[in-house]
Amino acid sequence: MIMQLIDDSRTTIYLNDINYYFEGLKSSITALQLHCNRDRYVFSLCENLLQKIAIVEKIITSTNLNLPIAIASEVNRLFIVDKNLSGVNVTILNSKREFNGNSIAYLKLLV
Questions:
Q1: How far apart are CA 103 and CA 34, in angstroms?
Q2: How far is Cα 33 from Cα 38, in angstroms, rounded to an integer?
Q3: Which run of H or E residues covers position 109?
Q4: 84 vs 9, residue with greater confidence
Q5: The pTM is what?
Q6: What whole-number distance in Å separates Cα of residue 55 and Cα of residue 31?
Q7: What angle separates helix 9-35 from helix 40-62, to the nearest 10 degrees?
Q8: What is the pLDDT of residue 8?
Q9: Largest separation between any pair of C-alpha atoms in the chain
Q10: What is the pLDDT of the chain when averaged over all its residues?
Q11: CA pair distance 86, 77, nearest whole angstrom
Q12: End-to-end CA distance of the chain
């Protein structure tokens, strides 16, 4: 089962949907595997599919999307609150380095 990445209601809904479909796939594949337990090809194919689903679940849970999702959620909220807003400046500081105001990169994204 995939864990919740952050406290965002839309993200929670999406992850719950992903969990629902993964659990359905795993249940169907397991049922097919039990039904065709004498067919080595089908049994092996089902086992392989279950392993691939487990890998996808691990990839989703091990990816650290907290920061990008939090930034996107806050930017979206700002655009909804202020209809005249045409841009948002986001400053990301590296907590492992001393702040140097002369060494800042600028990234401009058009959405």
A1: 61
A2: 9
A3: none
A4: 84
A5: 0.54
A6: 20
A7: 160
A8: 61
A9: 69
A10: 83
A11: 13
A12: 33
